[in-house]
Every structure is written in structure tokens, then in C-alpha cells.
Amino acid sequence: MSTSIENILPKLKKVLKEDQVSINLTVRELHSKDESYHEICLPDIVVFPKNTNEVSEIMKLANHYQIPVVPFGRGSSLEGHIIPYDNGITIDFSLMDKILEVRENDLLVKVQPGVTRSQLNKELKKYGLFFSVDPGADATLGGMAATNASGTTTVKYGVMRDQVRDLEVVLADGTVIHTGSLAAKSASGFHLNGLFVGSEGTLGCFTELTLRVYGIPEFTTAARAVFPSVQSAVEAVTSILQTGIPIARVELVDEESIRQVNRFSETNYVESPTLFLEFDGNEAGLKQDVEFTKEIMEDHGCVDIQFETDNTARTKLWDARHNLAYAYIHGNVGKKMMVTDVCVPISELADAVVYARNELSSIGLIGGLTGHVGDGNFHAILMIDMTDAAEVAKAESFNEKIVHYALERNGTCTGEHGVGIGKQKYQALEHGAALQVMEKIKIALDPNNILNPKKIVNIES
Amino acid sequence: MSTSIENILPKLKKVLKEDQVSINLTVRELHSKDESYHEICLPDIVVFPKNTNEVSEIMKLANHYQIPVVPFGRGSSLEGHIIPYDNGITIDFSLMDKILEVRENDLLVKVQPGVTRSQLNKELKKYGLFFSVDPGADATLGGMAATNASGTTTVKYGVMRDQVRDLEVVLADGTVIHTGSLAAKSASGFHLNGLFVGSEGTLGCFTELTLRVYGIPEFTTAARAVFPSVQSAVEAVTSILQTGIPIARVELVDEESIRQVNRFSETNYVESPTLFLEFDGNEAGLKQDVEFTKEIMEDHGCVDIQFETDNTARTKLWDARHNLAYAYIHGNVGKKMMVTDVCVPISELADAVVYARNELSSIGLIGGLTGHVGDGNFHAILMIDMTDAAEVAKAESFNEKIVHYALERNGTCTGEHGVGIGKQKYQALEHGAALQVMEKIKIALDPNNILNPKKIVNIES
């Protein structure tokens, strides 16, 4: 244990209760990894604050002793965001898990950062409301805001950043600020909401979030459409988007991934490239949208399309899609999952998916493609044996190729998983001189570089 | 002419052509004011760059000589944004007015900052597309991005910030950066798009914008609904929003403002609080939405509702609403217009509008209320005789009361007009300690404080 850690420990125990400060190895191990393949690293201390004031006191101490701090939600990140590579203090927000207020008339909800997505939706259901962002994992809302999470519903409802109306943030020196207001729009001051969302704990710790929620739609229809190729499936989606039909979800799952789904979810879907779709709205409008969509799909060579309006059938269909990552994990025990995450302009998507499919086949690793094709964002899921250096190298080279392909077409290295440690090396290539702007902001707001160092920007200390 | 201005002038004439640099008094006067009541002030020099490289050279010189720079679109701002209170150089972007690329398949368009909203929409119509943000004035897109403009369509399509996919920005030292990419979503790096949109020329000059566009909806219906009180009108809108019916526009115009509209637009609308509405979508869905809306309106005491599906009638209806500001100006020659611009949580809107109406009546100035009620944003338009000190004081005190009312309810001092000089004094009250975060960002990116000084943040030099 370093001197500074020895010094801060009794101080932390003064501002927090005994059971809110842990140096237990098991606890530290639980905070040393996320759901990715990235190398683990232990924090020195894990703290469990119960309120904003405690977080502020922790930050004041950490800033004084210049000890790194990593905010931690549930550890479901996929690029090593919460792995404390410089050790130090991990702030676990699991005790700050209260839904503070449902402002039904304002379509807003105020929550603490440790509230999970499913916990919030369970509560909102009582009001006929729902929270739209669905990244698959049952992440905390604080973590989702920190990484600007998105997912299957983004094509209609937007990303996490679009839902954040206000954040209470504890800065590096312990100062507490609010980044927004309860107004639906504002032209007052710099857009701090947008800056802090997606900052991955490098600019501050979120202690309260005010989020937009929506009325549960009157009617919902799900569909599954089978295509002869990923290209024809993607082209069908592009055409639908151009007509302005408001699709609520549209996911592409390739042949190999359908095989994994069938095995894990005990379904017997045709093992061909498939679109999973969802539409919502009023009954009459929905009917017309669905008919028009069907026509467009058939024009693009769709060989089979099945609709599910019944709630149970719809849930079963989406569960199969949602369980895809677990299907890969379950079916490949002992291997680690690497997921690529580029996003390209929609017009480049069909070619990009074909490119990825060919590259994936050529390296001979187990893996499939899936994508939020309405946004141009797709993933290759690879299962790798981390003890096999050649396999790891192949997977990393594949990931790099996909990233370069996307950046050459003015896309992004990460559509929704975030930078963490895994995409840090691509920041200069993607952002060019804009990366220096980000570095200047980081240095201005966290001069001692204690907040989640080495993530997004890599400041030399 | 100061020494530094004398020094920079020949240097500017080296990087620009003779006719791109002006010290002519008439030209300077045209760049000394916007459409507001704020005091005018002359720039020393006005420059007219033709490309990014020229803007970069101008900024390098200005930074070297530490001369203030104000970027200028069309001067349609309402809070003195482009008035150069420290004199210096005004960069007029009127020669950078090219639509560079329409990426039909990506629903994106790339433009130079001097392109106006109507110019863009004229071009997009050829593709069956439109640009959604409509602030009333035919502003430039660079100016609209700088102020995070919004307007009548925001309730459905969002504010300017929601449309910006990428900006090319020239920073204070002449460095050129891109703030985004062409991908529909990204979790890569800090959200510079969001930070630069709404920065009102204080962080950089925009030289290229990539913007989202939309397919022109299949069907559109407009409506005009008359209510016995502003309160019942606002409550009706709140109920409609809660059901999730996607209204494309919803504007409130009060009794006095309807009188001004009737006089200016030669209409004979009932002089009672009125909602102007618009719905778009597919034919069947729209019909169902309209019927449901009508029911809700009647539940809230709507006394008359008229629908217009015909294109000409619809345009006439919206022209009347759009001409409201001009109706006030036209009907009150010699007076200047002051427009308040607070935005409150929707649940507070009905009371806020009643409060503003009562205050307005009590001070006895000519004025009316209008509002983007779907967003909780409303304006009081006051016509003031700037030579009458008592009248000016009354108007300013009214504005201040409205701002305090909104801030006490967790709203914002400006929903869409921006900070400029007029709302600078409320920034500390609204943002608290977050204002210091904004100041740190400003100092980090513009250490010599040359970019539109005194606006948004007031850095002591």
C-alpha cells in the first residue's frame, strides 16, 4: 500500500461509515474488471457513498492527495472504462439507487446514479411511462450517461445524451454543479449536459440525473424479415428510413448469429440474414406503416416476413435478439468476448457489413454480426481464447481493420460502447486536432488528472 | 484608429483581396446592430472571407495582435450577440454561401455558414427533403448553429443542436478542427458538436456545417383552436403531449397578439387566445391523431377548432403566425422590440403565462404573448420607445421579473434566443458554480479572449 493510500484511508473513514470503505481483496477484485476482454487491474480502495455530500468529500480528499478515482456503476462496460489502471479509489454507486421523483406532467424523472434501467422501467410502468434507452445490459443510469449508451430504440428515441435534461456532477475538486435545468430546451450558456454525458468519468462523478421519459405507445407491432444477403437487408432498411416511416427498432442479425440464437433460445428461425423490427404508434397509422414497410422489403428481395402483435410473441422475438451476446458467451465457455462497434454513414453500411463478414470469415474465428442498422452502427462479436496469443492478435487486427474502414468513410470508431481503454488508441486518428481541444478541456477541469486517468484522453502527468 | 488596428489592416489586405476588407463607415454601421433594442457599437474592420483558409489566416492575425473578432451571419439575433462591444474585426460570412453537398441517402447536407434557411430549403425541395429548424427569421445556418436556434417545429424535430452532425471550426489560434463525423451516432470522445453549437462565436468560427435533413411528410394538416383563456389552451397542449400524439408544431398566440395579426395580415380571426397547430405523418395515422386531439381540446373548453389540409390555406394560417413579430414592428413605427424568452417545465407553463399576462397588463406597455407551448417556451413581445427612460426601465424590470419567475421554477432565462449581451447578467444566477466550468473552458480554448468577448461568459482581461 503506497504512502498516499495509507494517508487517505483514515480520512475516508472519517467522512464515511466503516462499512462504506473497503480494502477487502474480493471487493477490489469485483471492481477490477468489466464485461470485456481487457486486462484487469485492482483498485486500492472501494468506497460506497450514500449521498452527494459524501461524494464531494471523497473527491476533495482524492484531489488533495492526488489519488486516481474511478466511478463505478455495475461494471457492464465493454471497453475497460471502469478498470482502474492507475489503481487508487473506485467509487461504487450501488448505495445511491433511489428514484427521487417522477414528474409525470413534465415527462421527466429524477434518479440517483445507481438506479438500473429495469428498476426505473418497473416504476415508470405504474404511470404508463417508459425510459427509452436499451443497451441490452441492465446497466445503471449513471453508467449509461457516463458512456452515452444507446441501443435498439435509438433509431426512434435517440441516444442517452438526448434523454439527459440535467445532471448533478461532483467535479475533481469536490465542487457540485448542475449541468442543465428542467426546461425542455435552453440556449443559455455552454451545453454542459452534452459535454458531461459520454465523458466516462473523466470530468466528474454524476450524483443525480434528470431524464426524459415517454408515454407507452398505444400499439406496438414486431416483425422478423428474412433476406438472401446482409446487403439486401441493409438496403431495405435504408429505403424505409428515406420514406420517413418511423421505425422504433431495427436490428440486423447475420446467419451465424441466428445459428447461435437458435441454439441458445431454442428457436428455429431460418438461418439466413434477418431483420428484427418494431413499430409503434396509433392503430391506424401503424397499420399503414407496416403495409408500406412490407412492400419495400419485398422490393428488396425479402423472402419471408412474419408479424407479431401479440405481447408474448413479441417479447419472445426480442428476447432472442437480446440474448445474442449471452448465446455467444454460453456457447463458448472459457473464451472472452470482443465486440467491434463502428458506426458509418448509412449509405456506407451495406458495403461495410459485407467487408466485415468477409474479413471475419477469412480469419476463421467464431463470430457473427449484428447491428443497429437504422443508425449505421454494427457489431462483430468474436469469441477469443485469451491464452492463445495468435488468436488474440488475429482478433485485434480484425478490430483495427474495421475501425480503419469506418474512419476512412467519415464514421466513428465507437457508435455506442465508448472509448474506455480499448478505443483510446484511435482517438487521435478519428478526431485529429480536435483531440487537443478535448485535452485542454480535461486539463482545465481536472488539473491533477485524477478522474479516470488514461480513458478517452491520455494526459501525461 | 488604434495602433493594433493600424498594424493588422495591411496584413489582412495581404491574406484577403482588397474588396474583402472594409473600413467604410456604412459597412461598419451595418455590422453594429442586430434586430434587438441593445445599444449599437461599431467594429473597426469588416472582413468577408471566401473559404476556411482565409478565416484561419484572419484568426491567426487577430490572435497575434489580440484583436477581438465577432462572427456575423445576417444580424438577425435578438440579444445583441453580434454587436462588437470591444470593436475589432467582424467576420461577415455572406460570401461563404454555398450548399456543398446533398447526401440524399444519408439524409445529410453539407453547407457553408452563410447559407440561409430558405436557400437550403429551396434546394432540398428538389430531393423531397426539408431542413426542420424554423426560428422565424431567415437566418444563416452558421448563425443558427452559433445560437442553438429553434422554433415552431422543435416540439417534433428538436433544436439546432439536434441537427448538427459535424462542424468545421476555426479556433482562436487559427487551428481548423472537425467536431463530429458523418455517423448517425458516436460514443467517441467529448461531445464537441454540442459544446460548439450555442457557443455564440465565443469558442470558434464555423466554416462548414453538416446537418440532418428529413423527408417531406406524406400528409400535413394545420389547425387553429380558440380557447376562453391562455390557461385552458396551455392545459390542452400538456394533455396532448402526455398521450404521445406527435404534434409537429403548436403555437399559442394571445388575444392582443391576434389583434396585431388581424391588423397586419388582414385576417379576421376571433380575438381570443388561440393555438396554431400542425400535424404530419401518414394519412391514416394523421386522421386518428387529429380526431383524438380534437376530443382533448374540447375537454379543455376549446370553443372553436378549424382544420386546414389544403396547402394554400395552411400556408396562409402559418404566415399569419410567422408575421407576428413584423406585425408588432409595422404597427409601432419608431419603437424598438424587446422579446422575453424564458422556458419553464411544461407543468409550470400555464401559471407562468398567466403571470406574464398580468404583469404585462399592469405596466401598460403595448405587448402580447406568444409561445412554443409544446416546449414550455414563451415570449412576451414589447414595443418600447427607447427615448423614454421610464418606458425602458419598465420593460427591463418586466423582463427581469419573468426571468426570475422562470429560474425559481428550474427553467432557463433563454429558451431559444440565446445569451448574447442581454442575458449575460443572468448566467451566474442560472448556472451557479457551473458558470465557472464554462469560464474555464473559454479560457482554455481562447486564452487571449478575442472571440466575441463579453458574450455568454464575461472573462476579465
From TrEMBL, chains A, B:
<protein>
    <recommendedName>
        <fullName>D-lactate dehydrogenase (cytochrome)</fullName>
        <ecNumber>1.1.2.4</ecNumber>
    </recommendedName>
</protein>
<feature type="domain" description="FAD-binding PCMH-type">
    <location>
        <begin position="39"/>
        <end position="216"/>
    </location>
</feature>
<comment type="similarity">
    <text>Belongs to the FAD-binding oxidoreductase/transferase type 4 family.</text>
</comment>
<dbReference type="InterPro" id="IPR036318">
    <property type="entry name" value="FAD-bd_PCMH-like_sf"/>
</dbReference>
<dbReference type="InterPro" id="IPR016171">
    <property type="entry name" value="Vanillyl_alc_oxidase_C-sub2"/>
</dbReference>
<keyword id="KW-0809">Transit peptide</keyword>
<keyword id="KW-0274">FAD</keyword>
<dbReference type="InterPro" id="IPR006094">
    <property type="entry name" value="Oxid_FAD_bind_N"/>
</dbReference>
<dbReference type="Pfam" id="PF02913">
    <property type="entry name" value="FAD-oxidase_C"/>
</dbReference>
<dbReference type="InterPro" id="IPR016169">
    <property type="entry name" value="FAD-bd_PCMH_sub2"/>
</dbReference>
<dbReference type="Pfam" id="PF01565">
    <property type="entry name" value="FAD_binding_4"/>
</dbReference>
<dbReference type="GO" id="GO:0071949">
    <property type="term" value="F:FAD binding"/>
</dbReference>
<dbReference type="InterPro" id="IPR016166">
    <property type="entry name" value="FAD-bd_PCMH"/>
</dbReference>
<dbReference type="GO" id="GO:0004458">
    <property type="term" value="F:D-lactate dehydrogenase (cytochrome) activity"/>
</dbReference>
<dbReference type="InterPro" id="IPR016164">
    <property type="entry name" value="FAD-linked_Oxase-like_C"/>
</dbReference>
<keyword id="KW-0560">Oxidoreductase</keyword>
<dbReference type="InterPro" id="IPR004113">
    <property type="entry name" value="FAD-bd_oxidored_4_C"/>
</dbReference>
<keyword id="KW-0285">Flavoprotein</keyword>
<dbReference type="GO" id="GO:0008720">
    <property type="term" value="F:D-lactate dehydrogenase (NAD+) activity"/>
</dbReference>
<dbReference type="GO" id="GO:1903457">
    <property type="term" value="P:lactate catabolic process"/>
</dbReference>
